[in-house]
């Protein structure tokens, strides 16, 4: 069974200082994330963990990790190789791809047509663009079924059994492959850590690098940046004296919470 995990290495914007965010609101370019450490999203890490766990249990599969971007992705492609992925692919592309869901979907669908895959796995959405469109667009281009909000899945060739979170609860489906699924991190899976021997072997592993297929990318131009005000919810206690304020605090808040 050939499985393609498509992931996006996202910059850790939590490493930006307060002054970087304040400076970004003065223009329309946003904060500079070029020097930030990048990592796959939590959804994609959970998907990789589920795949590797089933391989350890004896499920026969060929795993491909694919990403679109620049040199910053190389580290994670080697990391996945150290974990046991058979093929690592970098489709080289420049420019702002945060909101280019259709462009990214065309690259993934194009790779599938050229190399074949029974199952394509993505995350539900990235922490940058957050549009959640990519898996649906890939499925539409390939005329495959698509399932999102998948918390767990089990491979039973030629089927896949998925646990999908819906508004009414958890739904289990048995789907015939091929299919596209978008995995949702539910806090139960963690990406394994490869040992030193695996890391050294992966440092020499071949990474398939090729330019992304030329395509018309959408021109997205930021018009305005605004920093939302961060305030905690609070109730202001008004009183003429300190004693009165203390009495109001006791009657309206503390008294009810200290009942046996």
How does this structure look, described?
- With 260 residues, this protein is of the alpha/beta class.
- The protein has seven helices and eleven strands.
- The strands form two sheets. Strands 9-8-7-10-6-1-4-5-11 form a nine-stranded mixed sheet, sandwiched between helices. It has a two-stranded antiparallel sheet with strand order 2-3.
Strand order of the largest sheet: 9-8-7-10-6-1-4-5-11
Beta percentage is 25-35%
Sequence stretches where pLDDT stays below 50 over 5 or more residues: none
Mean pLDDT across all residues, rounded? Answer: 86
Instruction: Give helix and strand order, one letter per element, not per position.
Output: EEHEHEHEHEHEEEEHEH
Computed Rg: 23 Å
- What is the helical fraction, as a range of percent? 25-40%
Number of strands: 11
Distance between the termini: 60 Å
- Anisotropy-based shape: globular
Q: Would you tell me the structural class of the helices and strands?
A: alpha/beta
Main beta sheet, described?
Answer: 9 strands, mixed
Number of helices: 7
List the helices and strands and how they pair.
Layout: E1 2-6, E2 9-11, H1 18-24, E3 38-40, H2 42-56, E4 62-69, H3 74-83, E5 87-92, H4 101-115, E6 119-123, H5 134-142, E7 146-156, E8 159-166, E9 169-176, E10 179-183, H6 196-202, E11 207-211, H7 242-257
Parallel strand pairs: 1-4, 1-6, 4-5, 5-11, 6-10, 7-10
Antiparallel strand pairs: 2-3, 7-8, 8-9
Q: Can you describe this structure in just a few lines?
A:
Helix content is about 30%, strand content about 25%.
Keywords:
two-stranded antiparallel ribbon; Electron transfer flavoprotein subunit beta/FixA family protein; about 25% strand; alpha/beta; ETF_b; Rossmann-like_a/b/a_fold; ETF_a/b_N; about 30% helix
